[in-house]
Amino acid sequence: MLSLTHTASDSAEGHYGGLYPGHIPTTVVQKALLAVGSGVAALQNPYRHDLDKMAALPDGSFGREYLRFLEDNKVTPDTRADVKFVDDEELAYVMQRYREVHDLLHTILGMPTNMLGEVAVKWFEAAQTGLPMCVLGAALGPLRLKSSRLQSLFTSLGPWALQNGRQARCVLSIFYERRWDQSLEDLREELRIQPPPLLPGRTSSPRASPSPSASP
Known about the structure:
mainly alpha; single chain
């Protein structure tokens, strides 16, 4: 006798052809290839995110410094591609949020979009999340650095990124879109992230002057 039991998840899976909208099932080998590809792609094209009106915010506010980061590095925000190859709906949400937060981390960590700055962000992310794409990006990134920048990575930036990645609050759990007017300095203190060391060619750390805080 046929069972007439039909759950909402069954209906959703049948409608979308996967576990969530846009999901594409993959094999173990395909997952491994995607992990490697994601790690490399994250190093090459890390600049996407939605922007609101931030130009009127005071210097030192998170939103204004994020906008300055985009302007100084001559990059423009964009919408990151939807997650499609993760076989768990909740994990897919986490991965999507990771992609969105990555760009904001550049501002919080005071890291530019050059290869040294990107590798430092990847070391932070690897220490905090343990995601394969972060670990692979952290491992492969130094191979593309010149010897002088490798020295900066291994003597100052790397240890700083690993220590802060381990001690910081979960950076994926913050509603950053409500924090644009909070000071960058206050946000770092809240997240337990220390100001970054000086990068080669810089004479001062990224600006982080106080401004009114926003609630979570």
